[in-house]
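Notebook, p. 212. Picked up where the previous page left off. The plan for this session was modest: take the two constructs that came back from the sequencing core last week, fold each one, and keep the raw output in the notebook itself so nobody has to go hunting through shared drives later. Recording the first one now, exactly as returned: residue sequence, then the structure token string.
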Amino acid sequence: MQFKIQRYKRSKRIKIRVSINGTISVSAPLRTSVAECNNFILTHMEWIEKSLQKVKKIQAEILDTRKGMDGKVLYFGKLLNLIIDSSIKKKYLITDDAIILKGNNLDLFYKTEAKRLFESKCAEIAPFYGIKYGKIRIGAPKTRWGSCSSSKTLSFNYNLLKAPHGIIEYVVIHELCHIIHPNHSRQYWDEVKKLCPDFIKQRAWLKAHSYELSSEHI
């Protein structure tokens, strides 16, 4: 079992992440020794092994699109059929029970739909609470579902399109509130609660189901 250890200035504690492809990485504060990382890994071996089993199960259920095969994919919390059909005129089509792609471009589908969705959600929610934001960017960072820069640029992970609508709305609110409070202070969480009263439930869901979306942390 191999581990990749990375140290960061901003890290406050050691974390382990098991990605959807089975890669195990450890992030730690800058001055953390290898021995400390190894001890942390040993104390969490049971969690790591269970996490790897979850990954194997998900890999067996969800399509590896690089193979260009039909299968099932998550979209707004539901498993839909994924069909590759080069005869369709558009790049993709969405039906009640399937996503039909013209080519092997599932990531492009998620990214395109995510841009449309997050632009719409931010435009809907922000004015209602008098929040002004800058640009909206879409990507697939390994460790974040969203972020808010000092210039009020909002970034969102397109893998969130695999989550239910309520989870997506919570992440949008989470980032919009950072424009008011650029931290995770009590005042910040009070603001989040005001806009999303059940945010604790949404956060718990996101943590519990992060494997289905991309990865899981401890």
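Okay, moving on. Second construct, recorded in the same format:
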Amino acid sequence: MLDPDSVADLARQLHDAARTRVPIRQPSLTHPEMTIEDAYAVQRALVELEKGGGRAVRGRKIGLTSKVMQRAVSISEPDYGVLFDDMFFDDGAVVPAGRF
């Protein structure tokens, strides 16, 4: 299990990587002891950072629903996350490429 400081540090790294568009090393490679529970703790901390920056949670999502994708990332069940308000676009809207 990760300690609270490591959880906060990983959340900050992910937050900064998204903001600067500079990738970081996969957290589970940096912390091989990381559990699914740790990953969700990092996600919760990251969501709080994003909300502190003005983003709002608008929905939820489920990922890795196929067994093929689960095997590809060595997990045995789907995962879940949040959708923020700025992830939604009206039909016909131009999606700014700079976000990616």
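Notes on construct two before I forget. Residues 4-87 form one domain.
Flagging for discussion at group meeting.
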